Amino acid sequence: MAAIIPLETPRRKATNALEQLTALVQDDLQAVNEVVLTRMQSSVPLIPQLAGYLIAAGGKRLRPILTLACARLCGYEGARHRKLAACIEFIHTATLLHDDVVDESELRRGSPSANTLFGNKATVLVGDFLFSRSFQLISEDGSPEVLRILSDACAVLAEGEVLQLTTSYNVQISEQGYLEVIRAKTADLFAAACRLGTVVAERPVAEEEALRTYGLNLGLAFQIIDDVLDYSAEQAQLGKTIGDDFREGKITLPVILAYNRSNELERQFFRRVLQDHQQKDGDLQQAIIILSRTGALKDAAERARHYGAIARDALGLFKPHPVKDALLDVIDFTLEREY
Amino acid sequence: MAAIIPLETPRRKATNALEQLTALVQDDLQAVNEVVLTRMQSSVPLIPQLAGYLIAAGGKRLRPILTLACARLCGYEGARHRKLAACIEFIHTATLLHDDVVDESELRRGSPSANTLFGNKATVLVGDFLFSRSFQLISEDGSPEVLRILSDACAVLAEGEVLQLTTSYNVQISEQGYLEVIRAKTADLFAAACRLGTVVAERPVAEEEALRTYGLNLGLAFQIIDDVLDYSAEQAQLGKTIGDDFREGKITLPVILAYNRSNELERQFFRRVLQDHQQKDGDLQQAIIILSRTGALKDAAERARHYGAIARDALGLFKPHPVKDALLDVIDFTLEREY
Description:
The structure is a homodimer.
Chain A: H1 17-24, H2 26-39, H3 46-57, H4 62-73, H5 80-102, E1 107-108, E2 111-112, H6 114-118, H7 120-141, H8 144-167, H9 175-201, H10 205-229, H11 233-237, H12 244-248, H13 253-261, H14 264-275, H15 283-293, H16 296-314, H17 322-336
Antiparallel strand pairs in A: 1-2
Helix pairs in contact in A: 1-17, 2-5, 3-7, 4-5, 4-9, 4-17, 5-7, 5-8, 5-9, 8-9, 9-10, 10-16, 10-17, 13-16, 16-17
């Protein structure tokens, strides 16, 4: 007996949208985790030790989940997407390792960063190892299109890192400059992760373009909200660490908007704490006061909603499907999340 | 006796904002028009005849005005910006000529297009002549930075044309694809026009970046609103021509949003009229009904407001100045204009 599928399934709540999406691709994700664990092995014990430290500490696996979900949405029944999702996770992990060295970060997700524990040299080299592993996985897949998409994404990622190096610690970076950095560093990998799903399913280019639009704009929204949350008083009340970007002197959208809207005294403050790295007790609180007064946090979140709206419309091309609903909910989750 | 400049001058209305900006740079614009008229001369009479047809028919001269205004905002006192503004107008005119040939347009701004009157061959070649003239003007200016900015902008423009050729007549183009085309075809030249103002004034890179952000986002907003107005029922009531893009089968943001939000019957309609070019009486009205029902016109204008907000914040870096106020008003004018 066939189930009756309503034309529009009722929308779920944004809370736990990521868990819902994860549940929909659970078997695939299990397989991806196995690929990741197998392929980070090496006869050099330090490699799995260091790589595993970050990979096991585990983020949300958002990027590989997007690959799996988009493949599912496109009706793909094969297994290629599993290796490619692992590949995306390797590329992402490699850039995190290199980022932490470049930024001289001491913490990542509240734990000591890999470079703190294993040193800069090993961290850089294991990043290179993971990049190489990802291209081995691409080679095994054998598709020239996959190779093109992922090599493009890696080149853009590297360009984004260099661009950030030359601009992101300048308090007078423009909003456009910021957008170009986060597009290169975050959004293009989201876009690539989503596109792979249509490529393996051999779907028309219109669907590939739709999912590229979804991924890219979800990535922009995701990064902007990430940057907003780093100054969120609500976060602090929830006992979360805030102010990481502030302590590093990283110039993100909330600061750019606040700086543009500030008076000269406040601009001097931002230059002292972020550009000259002369911070003292109470400076973070002072920054949050200025960010609130100028509406910078509110309006940065508003900017993110624009990208969320583009991502939402992009999915309009697809027929009703549980994965489609979950991908829509992930947009709301990204915009409304508090962690 | 020094005039007292209030910290914040009261904001004017958006109506005629462009006229107000034009009035602020009136002398410079007069000089630019002279450069344009002198430099489009040639011993080959067809050249000034054809170039003059389009240049005299005159658009709003928005791009050269932006160069003049930004130079003024940056406190520039010299005369370099006049030739560079003329250069921007030549580049813009050259792309219009080539566009009309490529699109096989019969009308531009309600009059017969140059290619209709003078033929395709002459129109293409006079476009090339104007490109060459603009690089002569750049050469006379002598700044390597100006050469870099404008040669980059021209390369991006040409890429945008080719990109449009391969995507913009496909009803399933993505919103991201559309944004990339209008950025390349319109917004990057706006950005270059604004940047030149800071470059001649030798201002810090932060101001150049701010005006690049202003120009680029104003350009995006400008083009989106242009595309919305082509379907505006209010426009039609005012006796303006609408439906040019529709008749050409050009896929713009309102159509992209409507298509993504449509049912299969409506999608068939869009494919028939825009992709298969089978249009009959009443189709434009039918399209406007779908664009309204799906909220596509309203939401496309909403997308434009996002870019307007970015442009507005970018000017925050500059001290109070009549030109700053006028540039702010031009954003509102761009978003609210009905022609």
